[in-house]
Amino acid sequence: MKKILVIVIALFTAIITLAYMYFSGLNTQRENNDSSLYAATVNSGVIFSFQNDKSIFDILKGQNILQEVIGERNYSQLQSIKDYILSAPDLNRIIGKQNIYISLIPGKDKQIDLLYSTQINSEASKNQLINALASAKLQLDSSQKITTITLPDSAVFYLAIKGNLLLLSSAIKPVSNVLSASINDNNKFVQYIKSTSRLTKNSLAEIYINFKDLPLLLKATMPGKLNGELSVLDNRNTFASLIYNFSKEKVLLTGSTQDNELNDYYQLFSTSNAQKTTATNILPENTANYTVFAIENYATWKKNLDAWFTEKKELNATSNILKNITLNYHIDPNQIFPKYFKDQLITFQLNTAEKIGAINLSNGEKVEQLLLDLSSDYGDGIKIFKESDLLYSYFGEPFKKFKRPYYIIIDNYMIFANNVSTLQSFLNSYKNNRLLINKESYVSSVNQLPNTSNITFFIDLDNSSEIFLKNIYLPYYKHITTEKGLRNYQSFTYQLSGDNGKFQTNVLMNRKQQPLNQDSLKLENDSL
Q1: Is 426 helix (H, G, I), strand (E, B) or coil?
Q2: Nearest CA-CA partner of 117 in 193, 63, 188
Q3: Handedness of CA 305, 225, 172, 65 (dihedral sign)
Q4: Which of 25, 109, 234, 398 is least enclosed, having the fewest CB within 10 Å?
Q5: What pLDDT is recorded for position 428?
């Protein structure tokens, strides 16, 4: 009996030991596989990722687009790393076809630093890596914990190796920050990237965005807080995973955006079917930016909006606004907007920084009649609401700052602004057909993407030039307006279409159409 008991205990001990070794191995393997990804997310809201593959570098090198978007300084860094470090035969063998992550990190003196993180193969060691760098005739100073590398073109980088993790940056702080950080299994951004990445399957490169950390990055480019049109980016618990699509004519990213806050305003659109966008047809030709929202079914959507108000503890306030209107004017406001609103609301900003809002209506004349007692007449068809926050009570966040606006109803659109002069400026453009939709460059941009969506953010780079000048630091303004920067780009579009609680996403930076060279149109006699 004792012998049997001893055997059972021995077997049980062996099972526990094997299980411990197995799961320890899994944990080590996880750290080996994910260490560079965890490192990439430390203090970074934007991460660019690709495989260490010569063909990919050749493709990226052959595109002026990459240099124009990331800027000469950052492109020069990437070129130096590729030419002097990753091209070294011994080093390339040590890294293999690992994923390389480039993290954008806010630095000192209004700079954005780049942190490169990847992994060395499990059989390689730190000494082998250092020897490989030395054999590539790079100047190394390994006297400190972080190694200083001086390249033949005099560029200086800082290198650190921790286990199989390799870190490289032109600034020392991003490297030291990662070394002092600990791997957190609850890092939701890492888990999101792992669940959505298709890097090793069918994509050239990918971009991951953590909107929660994005404000810190943007504040390196501009003074003050994220206000105005950029306030939408402040305190957003949202992730995006986007695939880079190869093109020499545009920057096109496709993928998904996930809002992690169930009570976020944009979540009201995440389960709806995408709708055709038409409200943009009324925009003046000097529109700098716009945000358009498409609602599939207002009655259903309004129930979700009330739940959103409840979460914000504002439902009583908005309900009281409507009750007081009924009490004071003997009008049921629920027989106006819920009944005659069609399907789209839009906010936009002119190149003068003036802000305007609009909704489309199924019967503008009827709405105008129903609002007579609720409005004061200004003249020339322009009126002003007598009560505040009426539009906010029916449509929420986009109209929060239009508390008691001036408005006009024309061609089944209600257009409103906080200043009469802003509305008059709009009417002048609209009545004279000076519209954005008539600009060939704009049509070319919007035709690159589907004409259906739930939410679309659009920036016309030329019309936004004066706004950029007043709101961002000079080096970044120069990058937007110079020939080697974004001067040749027409627009930026971020398009969201509801998809069962998240959003299918398209991001487009479209080039300006170049005028045709007349000499190129001449036909030789035998050209047919």
Answers
A1: helix
A2: 193
A3: positive
A4: 109
A5: 96
Q: How many CB atoms lie within 10 A of CB 371?
A: 20
Q: What is the mean pLDDT of the chain?
A: 85
Q: For the residues 193-219, what does the mean pLDDT come to?
A: 85
Nearest residue to 44 (alpha-carbon basis) of 222, 244, 189, 235:
189
- Which of 408, 373, 405, 374 has its CA nearest to residue 391? 405
Q: Estimate to the nearest angstrom the gap between the alpha carbon of 435 and the chain centroid.
A: 27
Q: For 269-324, how does the pLDDT look when each residue is reduced to its tens digit (9 = 90+)?
A: 999 999 999 999 999 999 999 999 999 999 999 999 999 999 999 999 999 999 99
3-state secondary structure (DSSP) of residue 438: helix
Gyration radius from the chain CA atoms: 28
Question: What does the longest C-alpha to C-alpha distance in the chain come to?
Answer: 106
Q: For 86-140, give the DSSP string.
A: ITSHHHHHHHTT-EEEEEEEE-STT-EEEEEEEE--TT--HHHHHHHHHHTT-EE
Q: Is the separation of the CB atoms in 357 and 400 below 8 Å?
A: no
Token readout for 261 is 């806050």
Query: What is the reported pLDDT for 229?
Result: 62
Contact 266, 313 (CB under 8 A): no
